[in-house]
């Protein structure tokens, strides 16, 4: 049993982890609680069931970070991408699939593998012995969630996203915005300039509130209790409680001086805080929201300085169990306190089918290497997989950590003709660099001295 890899959860991450580990010569047991224990979202007993959309998003591997992630997973022999390609539907530049046929075929391929066994039933505790990967996703069962919280500390495990939108720094108009912490707080110059500020006059604020109240909203899903949200109310709910509520909350204008107009006191201020160590991403402070995505982009682009904003992620609040991975996981996706336990998929703080499967791919390879007496390092940070794993295990700000899709803001900046007009060329430079690096990473594992 010492050479068996146990994987809890048969979603995208668990399925990919099992495939990768088994193909490296390790026996795998997938523990899947369905159908013994169901969820409100799943409809079948299949592994890798798609519970939301049927899209893997852009398949453009030259100009899109998600498409690049597709390319890397194909290069690494990923089962999820192989089955997605086999069941692709017409979707323009996106990769959409026949979800039922896709999940059925993933399940069949895993069950047919001589080194993979599926064991139905719920795992409710964190084992002390053996190599385990927990890939239980955003719908982790209550019992297992409690066990993880007991091990990691309740404050390190969230059961809901309270996501504020994230903006690419290079799309912010710095002729209107400025760096300053309220009352210039901080012992260092960096701390005193920790926030980006976007000012509003009274008319702009009133128009913003009107747009916020009129915007189309999504409904709360089953299991999202109103009591929880008292601590992180959507901005539109705050606005409904009074037109001045936001101006006395996250948009309060106190302690700030606009260097572009030092004699004019802003009526309200939207603040953005750095979201990663690279300084390429900034989140809009206190702006978690239930607005639909199209409405969000329209409303947030009415903020002075964000008229041309590009969003790495839009906001939301929904049920989603995830770890504060920057404080808990090492770069092998292992729980620092319990290195025989790895986590993969959405529970680590990545968002999306492809991102989840990619973390499963890495966890499977890393765990198999451990069992076989070898070592697989995390991919370099200039690859899509590397950018994701480095973000969730240390690149993100732990205090504001929220689930993230892959995007070029997670990559080390690259020198190319910049500006908005040069974006396509810049993205191509990112993907060219990533592909070369990823090929080298794969090649190194194939060499006898790779460990």
Would you summarize the structure shown here?
The protein is α+β, with helices and mostly antiparallel strands and 451 residues long. It has 13 helices and 17 strands. The protein folds into 2 domains: 4-161 and 319-446, FAD/NAD(P)-binding domain; 166-314, Elongation Factor Tu (Ef-tu), domain 3 (Beta Barrel).
What does this structure look like?
The longest helix has 24 residues, at 423-446. The chain folds into 2 domains: 4-161 and 319-446, FAD/NAD(P)-binding domain (3-Layer(bba) Sandwich); 166-314, Beta Barrel (Elongation Factor Tu (Ef-tu), domain 3). It has a 6-stranded mixed β-sheet. The protein has a 6-stranded antiparallel β-sheet with strand order 10-11-12-13-9-14. The protein is built from 13 helices and 17 strands. 46% of the residues are buried. It is an alpha+beta fold. The two termini are 23 Å apart. Belongs to the MnmG family. TrmFO subfamily.
Proportion of residues in extended strands: 15-25%
Q: Write the H/E string, N to C.
A: EHEEHHEEHEEHEEEHEHHEEHEEHEEHHH
Sheet of most strands: 6 strands, mixed
Q: Helices and strands: which structural class?
A: alpha+beta
Mean pLDDT: 87
Shape designation: globular
Total discrete domains: 2
CATH topology of the largest domain: FAD/NAD(P)-binding domain
Briefly, what CATH class of the largest domain?
A: Alpha Beta
CATH homologous superfamily title of the largest domain:
FAD/NAD(P)-binding domain
Radius of gyration: 23 Å
How many extended strands?
Answer: 17
* Low-pLDDT residue intervals, each spanning 5 or more residues: 223-231
Share of helix among residues? 25-40%
Through-space gap between termini: 23 Å
Tally of contiguous helical segments: 13
Biggest sheet: strand arrangement: 6-2-1-7-17-16
Oligomer: single chain
Using the 3D structure, state the CATH architecture of the largest domain.
Answer: 3-Layer(bba) Sandwich
